[in-house]
Amino acid sequence: MSANHYEILGVSPEASDDEIRKAYYHLAREFHPDKASSPEEAVAFDERMGIVSAAYNELKDRDRRALYDKALFGTGTRNPSETQQEPAMKPPANPELAPPPPPSVPAKKTATSASITQMSSAGNPDAKITTAKRSFAKGMYLMLNGNPAKAVMFFEAAIQNNDKEPIYYARLAQAMMRSHKSFVRMLEVANKAIELDPYKSDYHMILAEIYEAANMPAKAIDAYQELLKWDPENAHALARLAELKPPENIPFWKKLFGKG
Amino acid sequence: MDKIIGIDLGTTNSVVSIFENGSPTVLLNAEGSPSTPSVVLYPNDKGDILVGELARRQQVLRAGRVVRSVKRFMGRHYSELTPELMSIGVNVKEGPNDSVLLELDGLTVTPEQVSSEILKKMKDTAVSYLGEDVLRAVITVPAYFNDTQRQATVAAAKMAGLQVARIINEPTAAALAYSIDAKKHQRIVVFDLGGGTLDVSILQLSDDVVEVLATRGDTYLGGDNFDEVLCKYVCERFQRQNGIDLTQDLQAMQRLMEAIEVCKCELSTVQETVLSLPFISINEKGLIHLNQTITRDEFESLISCFMTRMKECCHQALDDAGLTPGDIEVILPIGGSSRIPLIRNFITDLFGREPLTTVDPESSVAMGAAVQGSVLSGALREVLLLDVTPLSLGIEVAGGVFSVLIPRNSSIPVVCTRKFTTVRDNQRSVKVHVLQGERRIAKENHTLGIFSLEGIAPAPREIPEIEVSFQIDSNGILNVSAVDTTSGVKSSITIVSFGVVDMEEAQEIAAEAEAQTAADMAFLQVVKVRAKGDVHANELRSYLETFDLPEDLRKETTEMIFKYDVASVANDIDEMEERIIGMMRLLSRFEESRLVKKNLKKI
Questions:
Q1: Which chain B residues are Cβ-neighbours of A33 within 8 angstroms?
Q2: Which of A60, A143, A179 sits opposite B603 (nearest CB)?
Q3: Do B328 and B187 touch, CB atoms closer than 8 A?
Q4: What pLDDT is attached to residue A79?
Q5: Three-class SS of residue B292?
Q6: Are strands B384-386 and B209-218 parallel, antiparallel or unpaired?
Q7: Which residues in chain A have their CB less than 8 angstroms from residue B525's CB?
Q8: C-alpha to C-alpha distance for B407 and B420, rounded to whole angstroms
Q9: Nearest-5° Cα angle at A175, A171 to A180
Q10: What is the model's pLDDT at position B53?
Q11: Chain B residues with CB inside 8 Å of A140's CB?
């Protein structure tokens, strides 16, 4: 059953508020449990009426109807609250490097009327975001299981589908670091993460780690200092800075075989 | 076809009615009155119980054994009670699992038990009128009662030997009674100000359908609040004049409350009244009397603080319905307190027209309940009532946020399904915490129930699809279910009364879940760090295996890996982090080292 709300109520998408109400009443007169002739029929009516009411609830309020129309047809000029109907879904600031994303509402299937209505954008853009999410999750899984090289592929795929998520870039940088990939791209990616979300000290940390791993302490110091600008209490950064400064002038070969 | 009676179980008065010969009739009780005071007296320990006028008359003499306005305690947790609620009369005690117990002299009862006595009397009234047994009833509750309060009412009815055919909202019932005669297309507002609660409902009336558009309310606002405020005023004046605090004298307070109620009603028709209570108290000079004049002005200024809340309720209801005050054609004043001139003026100012005077504010609700009873028994087919759920329903999601599945003022019956997912890798269970309310933070809403779904197919986080479904049937009963679409595992809960057992169970589940979450979080941290570290350690190991390294480098590497392993086994996050940094440095050295570049293997 992939009927949309209008089909469930039996009205055209251009129906007026009054017509929608009349349609609802019409269905209620037939299928409301109070009109059932037996308890068994009442239970069946309850379920049926449940779907009808859900459709009516989305259409009877002008704002919600506008949002629904936009999701369904991609039309409609009214944007009451364009950005996600559920801002509450965003997780609070989380000290962990990988904040648990909130339970999300993935790409809608047209099955029940209710699951459609909570979306704020329609069709393709949403499918991409979900693909991005899934690629990212797969990448994470691979990385945690010791396969950073493959993880890199998935992170790149995630970014292709959704290039606005700083964490995708950050994780890509880490995966690249662990699988010893292109240094230049690594830096590019880590910097992009920082650009998208400078407040997150973790992204600065990743950049600094890259520089450290690449034995570029001067740049690493810069990165740590930048981090401390955004997060002055960061113990790890402070510790690393203390150890790195002042940059010693050790010949290359000594660095290679000397104690780290 | 059995007869289903309609009962208005009010805070101050209760009424029973039945639909026959095309209209609802209010039944007279054993004392010959259409209205029964919601007062219960337990005169002795032999199990005798008095309900109604007889109890009310003795509420002063037998102050320690009388319960009035018990509706204010129905379905409430002890921790929810406000100081005003605990003011005079009955002693309120905490029962098991945060429930409420009413402590009389030598006897403890629950609010449901007291209400059941009132319902028994209503049932008896109907039985003696009909000459046959009555099994089913439609009982009304304030529209803004939450689920727990409604279930408490159902529990009380069960104790009284009544099966509840439906719980309906008081303003809706009143509108239903009105619509039987009116039969026009109208938008109406029901302003229901009873003893304990305020409900403002906006309805659309058509030929045969009564649809609720929006409903808002306040379950802590009613005539009793006005009494309390007036009582405080009188007591303070008395204290200033005679230096005695009457609030400490239970019997005096009972007398006073009774008299104040009478005065309040009188002030609706006269401009001033005298409150006279001889021999109210005693001091060293002898017996003293209470004689105070109360004017309407004084009373109005005392209750004006409640006007703001009332105004807010009205505006919110209009907003929810998408209407302005001018769109309303009829205002139905319900409840004794709606007779107060100040309230009537307030309504007139707000809506631009006067509330009706032709509707009986005290019996409309019971009559409406009788009409619905008739619809449910199949006797009346020309009317259909479409009600809404007054409070939003949803679950708690990550971050302690309340995610709404069924918004307030949604028509019922209704089914709503949404998809959720896990927050951790390999998360095998989710806790579904069902709540009711309007706050964004889940904890600040009212918990209806908690259950968990176990056996979710293992997967990285955000991959599983957990379908959560909320179903409210026409009786207002909520069914919540959760399904893992991959594995097909399903779990569900029917929201029932938080009686002793259920509350306990729910609390156990909640406590367990809490403890688990905390342990999970700590464990999760370790797992994360270990994952990072293991990757580095494995890489180093593979270097050791693959390449021929100088002895001191090999030694250093082996040492580092070893130190990391030690830290990992000990679950020591800080130590692990340090070793990880060490390993990363080593790795970078390998990268740069010419030794390695010679034999660089593609990973």
A1: 413, 473-474
A2: A179
A3: yes
A4: 37
A5: strand
A6: parallel
A7: 96
A8: 18
A9: 145
A10: 92
A11: 425, 460-461
Tell me whether residues A21 and B538 touch, CB distance under 8 A. Answer: no
In order of A100, B106, B455, B513, the CA distances from B521 in angstroms are: 11, 50, 20, 12
**Is there a catalytic annotation at residue B71?**
yes
Strand B163-169 and strand B136-141: pairing? parallel
Residue among A47, A50, A215 minimizing CB distance to B592: A215
Nearest CA to B165 out of B5, B364, B367, B390 is that of B5
Decide if A100 and B384 are in contact by the 8 Å CB cutoff: no
Q: What is the pLDDT of residues A149-208, one digit of tens each?
A: 888 888 888 888 888 888 888 888 888 888 877 777 888 888 888 888 888 888 888 888
Query: Residue B30 has what DSSP assignment?
Result: T
Per-residue pLDDT averaged across A4-17, rounded? Answer: 90
**Mutate which: B213, B401, B438, B564, vs A, most A CBs within 10 A:** B401
DSSP codes of every residue in chain A: ----HHHHHT--TT--HHHHHHHHHHHHHHH-GGG-SSHHHHHHHHHHHHHHHHHHHHHHSHHHHHHHHHHHHS--S--TT-S-S-GGGSPPP-SSSSPPPPP---SPPSSSHHHHHT-SS-HHHHHHHHHHHHHHHHHHHHHHTT-HHHHHHHHHHHHHH-TT-HHHHHHHHHHHHHTT--HHHHHHHHHHHHHH-TT-HHHHHHHHHHHHHTT-HHHHHHHHHHHHHH-TT-HHHHHHHHHHPSPP---HHHHHHS--
Least confident span in A73-82, A100-109, B318-327: A100-109
Give the pair of three-digit tokens for residue B579.
């070793």
Which pTM value belongs to this model?
A: 0.64
Interchain pair A89, B528: CB under 8 A: no
Report the residue of chain B nearest A115, measured CA to CA.
B418
Give DSSP secondary structure letters for A71-108: HHHS--S--TT-S-S-GGGSPPP-SSSSPPPPP---SP
Nearest alpha-carbon partner for B586 in B601, B566, B550, B569: B550
Q: How many Å is the Cα radius of gyration of chain A?
A: 27
In this predicted model, which residue has the larger pLDDT, B57 or B370? Answer: B370
Contact yes or no for B416 and A54 at CB 8 A: yes
Interchain proximity A34–B474, CB inside 8 Å: yes
Q: Does the structure's ipTM exceed the value 0.95?
A: no
Beta bridge partners of B454: none
CA dist., res. B139 & res. B252, Å (int): 35
Tokens coding B401: 């946020």
Q: Tell me the two tokens of residue B589.
A: 């050295």
Instruction: Tell me how far CA of residue B325 lies from CA of A45, B202, B213, B361, B450, in angstroms.
Output: 36, 11, 14, 22, 40
Q: Do A91 and B399 touch (CB under 8 A)?
A: yes
CA pair distance B145, B135, nearest whole angstrom: 24
Please state, in angstroms and rounded to a whole number, the distance separating the CA atoms of residues B560 and B554: 10
Determine whether B8 is an active site residue. Answer: yes
Instruction: Please list every residue in chain A whose beta carbon sits closer than 8 Å to the beta carbon of residue B592.
Output: 215, 256
- Among residues B457, B464, B408, which one has the least CA distance to residue B428? B457
Q: For residue B375, give the chain A residue with the closest CA.
A: A34
* Distance between CA atoms of residues A152 and A129, nearest Å: 18
Per the CB < 8 A criterion, the answer to whether B371 and B229 are in contact is no
- The residue written with tokens 């905390």 in the block is B518
A46 to B473: CB separation less than 8 angstroms, yes or no: yes
Which helix or strand (DSSP H or E) is residue B572 part of?
none
> Shortest CA distance to B583 belongs to which of B551, B602, B559, B550?
B559
Average pLDDT for residues B82-106, to the nearest whole number? 79
For tokens 């009786």, name the residue: B475
pLDDT, tens digit (0-9, with 9 covering 90-100), for B238-286: 999 888 888 888 778 888 888 998 999 999 999 999 999 988 888 777 8
Enter the tokens of residue B406: 């069924």
Catalytic residue among B112, B147, B192, B362: B192
Query: Is A29:A42 a contact under the CB 8 Å cutoff?
Result: no
| CA distance linking residue B264 with residue B599, whole number of Å | 98
Catalytic: B170?
yes
